[in-house]
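A reminder before we start the practical. When you read a complex entry, don't treat the lines as separate problems. The point of joint prediction is that each chain is placed relative to the others, so the output describes one connected object in space. Small molecules and nucleic acid strands, if listed, are placed in the same frame. In the example below there are two entries. Take a minute to note the order of the lines before looking further.
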Amino acid sequence: MAETRQWRLESRPVGEPTHENFELVTVDRPDPGPNEVLVETLYQSVDPYMRGRMRDAESYAEPWDVGDPMKAGVVGEVLESNADAFEAGDVVTGELNWAEHAVADAGELRRVNPDHGPISTALGVLGMPGVTAYWGLNDVGNPKPGDTVVVSAAAGAVGSVVGQLARLGGARVVGTAGSEEKIDWLTDDLGFDAAINYKETDDLSAAIDDACPDGVDVYFDNVGGPITDAVWPRLNVDARIAICGQIALYNATEVPTGPRKLAKLIESRAKVEGFLVSDYEHRWGEALERLSTFIRNDDLRYRENIVDGFENAPDAFLGLFEGENAGKQLVKVGEYDG
Amino acid sequence: MAETRQWRLESRPVGEPTHENFELVTVDRPDPGPNEVLVETLYQSVDPYMRGRMRDAESYAEPWDVGDPMKAGVVGEVLESNADAFEAGDVVTGELNWAEHAVADAGELRRVNPDHGPISTALGVLGMPGVTAYWGLNDVGNPKPGDTVVVSAAAGAVGSVVGQLARLGGARVVGTAGSEEKIDWLTDDLGFDAAINYKETDDLSAAIDDACPDGVDVYFDNVGGPITDAVWPRLNVDARIAICGQIALYNATEVPTGPRKLAKLIESRAKVEGFLVSDYEHRWGEALERLSTFIRNDDLRYRENIVDGFENAPDAFLGLFEGENAGKQLVKVGEYDG
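Here is the predicted structure of the whole assembly.
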């Protein structure tokens, strides 16, 4: 019988995850049941939100169980189908196992059209991160032309799209990132008005002041922690803060503390709102249509950081917390011949 | 020439304000100029926001200058008028000096109708605190019938109105306050479903859990600090948090720190919004009409804590930070004979 490999959660991390939390196992390749499809993974996504699922705590997503395969966004090719909607050779995306092969119910899969661009983009700029950026910026942040928009983790899969969409909407765009190479990409290729290398900046508050002479109207926060602390005092009247992620805090082993922030909201009448892309399920297509048009017109650029080989998936995930990736972090698992 | 007394800012407080920050001076009673009115103070308000104006820092309101008379909400009687809109004997309200007499431009005054109730209510339930409660709850908090609404400083001038309005709207209402006498008032007279004496509670989180078995949908925050920390983990999906005040932090001499709170907003998709009643200037009358109707029908109750004598105004103000007042804290300065 054919086999496949899976990454399972070996143990729950305390603080920063390590390789010891992951176990690579070889199992029999599963057979699809009625209305199910067998998918061969071509690309697997790794994302910061996964840190939350490794934890044994109630959150918006169920935690993963120790000993079970972990879950990830996957783009793959249908090998066998017992569902009318799909046939062998179709390219699909969905939340599947961290695995070379997995079985999924047809209802959990979305079709990927290879003519629309590289299939890997279904996990990045034309997938969850792109849609997160689109609705988070436009529905929660809601920038107006001339506004100053600050985005943290600006070179990441979400942040890089946020900044470019804000620029296209006529805003002044400032990003934070963790290397000179990323800073250059933001300002030279993506059209950011300014970018701050937070790792090389002694006085983050002064850097934000310099980059935002008219204050901050929209803050799109992927990071939390000291970067957010530095942006906060610069919030303008009626500022909007979209809380997308707080990666700076995800590995904390004690309750993270910092300056109390709520009083500033009174003076500025600012609004802070957390959001989840899953709440925009019904508006997914609308975002994809706009994003793909921007890409076709070269108004929106993206980068993918692809680690080759399924065995390297934990490396790719752990790198997220080191700020190693510019753009979307992916793992290439199989070869697409389409 | 007739004289009057004023309280002036003698020095800026460091931490908790003390009597040494206030100076009582006797000056010539001012003469009204063109379109101005001489007002005799009958009641003077003291409010937590005044702590911010004693500070030499930019905020939503100009700081007071050392050596100048401080400003307060006042209800008074017109003694002399050079304005068409007012005549001697009229009762008016506005932001005037901490003084027994003051001159004001007619445009800064609002008429008080003594037939609508005790004139002191123009500084409380039918004034700034009542309007703050009305629009902060209804426009920012926006509770639905069946929601759980938590309000901090629930026995205060704003909080007591917030809780009753929420109850009238069909919400489950939980308040926090700092004495058993206040707790009894909230639950026995004002119809709160539960009230927590934060000074006598070892485990505030457990107390909030007990009082809010279905979580918290709306949190109206007057206080900040540990009470807010205890409410935060109980926020439901789509919760709204209206930030009205943060009195627990106003006397801090260093940047107050506490648990970082933004990650919870992602999971709960909750919205935190600061507001100022001055932004509702154009909707003041709408709030007053509703509030006075509720009062006439005995659906809305209020308390005033009146300190007698202008010389005791600093005492009344300092008491705000001790949590001494239930309901609206006022200073009675003159006798109304109307």
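Discuss with your neighbour: The domain at 128-278 of chain A is CATH 3.40.50.720 (Rossmann fold). What might explain this?
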